[in-house]
Amino acid sequence: MPRSTLPNRACPVMLAAALAPLLASCANQPDPHAAVAEVVVTARRAERDERMMLPPPPPPPMVAAAPAMAGNRVHAEAPPRLPYPHDEGRDRFTAVAPNPFKVVREEPVSTFSLDVDTASYAFVRASLARHVLPQPAAVRTEEMINYFPYDYARPPSREAPFSSALAVFPSPFTPGRKLVRIGIRGYDLKAEARPRANLVFLIDTSGSMHEPNKLPLVRQALSLLLDRLDGRDRVAIVTYAGNAGVALEPTPASDRERIRAVLDQLEAGGSTAGAEGIRQAYALAERSFDPQGVNRVMLATDGDFNVGVTGIDELKGVIERERAKGVFLSVLGFGMGNYNDALMQALAQNGNGAAAYIDTLGEARKVLVDEATGTLFPIAKDVKVQVEFNPATVAEYRLIGYETRMLNRDDFDNDKVDAGDVGAGQTVTALYEIVPVGGPRATAPLRYRRDGAVAETSTAADREYGFVKIRYKLPNSDTSRLIATPIDRRVEVAAFDEAPRDARFATAVAAFAELLRGGRYSGRVDYDAVLRIADGARGEDPFGYRAEFASLVRAAKSAPALAQLGR
Which of 357, 452, 455, 469 makes an SS bond possible with 333, Cβ 3.0 to 4.6 Å? Predict the structure, then answer.
C-alpha cells in the first residue's frame, strides 16, 4: 500500500473492524481478562506489522553536485509532510559580529586559532536545499572557505608538518584595497604510518533523533567510517536518551559485522541525558586508552541536551579536563529544526576536535571516508597564527571570518593557551583585507595621531606588508614550534585575475558568506559577481564540490529568508 494512503497510526475504524470477531468471542471465553489481553496483543502486532510494511521514509531533499536548473535557479522539491514529530525554527547559533577594520598604528597585531571545521557550509547547503536562506549566525566564513581542499605545496616531513602559501592581490570588494591570502597545508600521513585509533562512538538516541536525517543517517555514516579502519583500531559505542549506557565494549574495528549489528539495533526515544553520555564515553575511552594511538570520542547528535548538566560552561570544563588526559572530542551534527550548533561548537573547540555537520550520505562520505585521516588523526595541535602588519605600507586591515577563534596578542607565545588542531593532509586558508597607506580608509583618521616609528628602517620594511608567524605543537609534545614568513611584494600581483586560482576561489566563497551574513563588507560584490569569480577559478573539481558551490549561489539568489508555513 502506498505510504500516502496510510495514516501514521492504525485507523480506529479499520482496527475495530479487524478485531470485531475477537471482541465478539470474548463473551464465550472462560477468562474474559485473558481474552481482552489477547485482543490488545493482536492489535499491537497488527500495528507493528503494518508499520513494517511501509517503505522507509524518503531522505531529506538535497542539492546535488549537478542539480537541474532553469535559468539561474536550483529546483529543490518541497519537503513532504513528515510522518514523525519535527521541530521548526528552533536551531540555535551564537551570533557574532564580523571582524571590523583595525588601524595598524593602533593595533598592528592580529592573532587567532586555526579552524578546520566545516559544519557551517553543510548547514548552509541544507538550508538552501529547503529553499530558505540560513540565519546569518549560522554562516561562519572560515568554515565556508575551508570546506574546500586547495592545491598548496606539500610539507616536507612529519617533523616539519606545515607548508605555507602567501598571495597579495587586488580586492574585488572595494577598489584600492588588497587581499592577503595565507594558505597552510598539513603533512599527509600514509596509511601504514598513521597511529592506531581508540574510538568511542557516542550516539544520541533520544526522541529528537527520530527523523530520517538524524539517527538513520548516523548509522549509515558511522558504518562508512568502519570501512576506513582495520584490526589495529578499536571501536566502542555508548548511547544516551533518558539514560546512558554502553552498547558495545571496545571491539577490534575489523569485527565490522558485530559493530554494524549494534548500530542497526539503535532506536530513538526518550529525553536527552547528554552529559551522562559524555561522562560514560570518556570513562570507556580512558579504560581502553592507547598511549601510542589517537584516543577520541565521536559525538553524533542534534545537540538537544535536556536532562542533567546542560550548561555550556559546565560541559566545557569537563571536555577541557579530559583533553588534558589525552582524550579528544569530535562532534558530528545531524538534523535541522532543533539543531544546537552553539553547544556543539563549544564542545568541539574545547575538545581538540573538529565539528562537522552531516546533512546527506554524500557529506558523511566526504568527512568520514575521503577525509578520514584529516578528521581522525592530527598532525599538529594548538595551532595559532599571528600577523604583524607594517604601518609603513598598511593603514588598516580586517580578518575575514574566525570571529569565534580570536586570541589575545600574548596568547600566541603562551603554550598553556589552547588552540585548534590540524589533521593529516588538511588545508586551511585565512584572508585579510588590507588598506594600503594612501588607500580608501574604512575609518576616519584621528585629529590627534600618535605617529609611531617603524621598528625596522631598512628597505625590507618598505617591501613588506607584514610578517606571518605560525606556532604549533606536535601531537605528543607540550612545547610549541615556530614558523615565520614575511608578506612581501614578491607574492603580489597587479590584477585580480592574475591571482592564484585557489586564492580567487576562496575569495568567491568568502564573498558569498559575507552576503549571507548581511553584506556589511561585501562592497560592490553581489551574487552574480560571486558566480563569475567562482566559475573563472573552478579548476579541477574531481568531487564536484566547486560545481555544487555555484548551484548554492544560484539558489541563494531566489531563496526567501523564512520558510513557508505548513511545509
Answer: 357
Give the CA-trace dihedral at 395, 401, 404, 409, to 10 degrees.
-30
Instruction: Give the whole-angstrom CA distance, residue 463 versus residue 431.
Output: 20
Q: Which residues make beta-bridge pairs with 183? A: 165, 429
For residue 410 the three cell numbers come to 600574548
pTM assigned to the model: 0.82
What DSSP element (H or E) covers 133?
none
Nearest-angstrom CA–CA distance, 98 and 140: 9
Copy the grid coordinates of residue 290. 592507547
Say if CB 290 and CB 320 are below 8 A apart.
Answer: no
DSSP of 408-455: -GGGTT-TTS--EEEETT-EEEEEEEEEETTS--SSPPPSS---PPPS
Domains in the chain (CATH in brackets) are 3-53 (no CATH), 102-189+379-445+453-558 (2.60.40.1230), 191-376 (3.40.50.410)
The amino acid at residue 296 is R
260: burial class by Cβ within 10 Å (0-12, 13-18, 19+)?
A: middle
CB-count burial class (<10 Å; 0-12, 13-18, 19+) for 464: buried
